Amino acid sequence: MKILINALSGNGDALMFSPALRLLKNKLPDSEIDMLVMFRSVREMYAENPWLNKIHYIDLLNQSKFKSFREIRKLKNNNYDFSVNVYPSNRFEYNLLNALLGAKSKLAHHYIHTDIFRAEYFNDILINEVKNRHNVLQNMDLISQIVKVNESETGRMEIFISGEDKVRSDKWHMEINPEKKTIAGFHPGSALLKNHINKRWDKDKFAELGCRLMDEFDVMILLFGNEFELNNEINALMHNRAVIASTSNYMDSVARMVNCKLFVSNDTAFMHTAAALQIPVAAIFGYTNAEELSPWMTDNVVIRKNLDCSPCFYNSPKPADCIWKGAESFKCIKSISVDEVFEACIKLLKKNQTLPS
Questions:
Q1: What is the pLDDT of residue 193?
Q2: Of 37, 48, 101, 342, which residue is least crowded by CB atoms under 10 Å?
């Protein structure tokens, strides 16, 4: 059997398919499972995954439509039995692409918030989206159309780090942390698509949190993400006592995250990456749904405000918007205090017996 996984969204969404991928391969060990991606960082993240045969990378966002169409049509020659749109993939373009791939059976979700212009009808098998169901489990629902699965089999998310990346990371950690301090990773950024800059907790609050952890418990702070200007601003607010950890290569960052005993993040791919690495996570949520996106199968504390209007963002091509205006705009994330996140950090460090004296 030949199966193509269309992981066309970002790293976080692609990573939440990893439990389903492992289960699919375990139940169909003789199958050929390929993945199609359009982000280089997703290709990097899955490069060492043992459950995949091939990763096909098509730069859909930057190359000409003609070149993309030609590469998609070339994939059609592989004669896949199934092509699967990873959840969430709720755009017209994703459904059109699934149709062009020409698999015998094309799987995707039928979304709660949708319309005829999303062209879900291009797919052969549609799985109903379930509100408040975690994304990992929504992906399990997809593969249940190929193999028999039980929710209890799901397991954790997985990232496989190469030996070369491990060696390089170990050397880097010896250089920046010879005293072997407890390390906390921060990801203060977020994607910008769909107005998701508003998922970001305030940079001044991140800096204050970092200072408290450093001053009271001698924790080392590593700043992750490719939002280098933002990270440099936050580091300056912490008197340049933190370390900028990320490079242009996603797996450099992943390998460097392994040594973290705590990770503090907005709702981002780095938050899900920390969960895959079994790092305790203090997860800061605004308007996105924590029930669907919370750190999967790792110790975590979700910090959010239970406002009547939140969560208000659902899977749709539409950008995030807020019913509140002016200073109150996106107050769900703005009203989270440093004390609340600090208490979550201390709780996780104590629970995992990694709180410095």
A1: 85
A2: 48
Sign of the CA dihedral running 342, 344, 347, 349? negative
Contact 291, 132 (CB under 8 A): yes
Domains identified in the chain and CATH numbers: 2-148 (3.40.50.2000), 164-351 (3.40.50.2000)
CA 161/CA 332 separation, integer angstroms: 36
Q: What is the pTM of this model?
A: 0.96
Compute the distance between CA of residue 318 and CA of residue 313 in angstroms, rounded to an integer: 9
Specify the pLDDT at position 28: 98
Give per-residue burial for 38-59: e unless 16+ CB within 10 Å, then b.
bbebbbbbbeebebbeebbebe
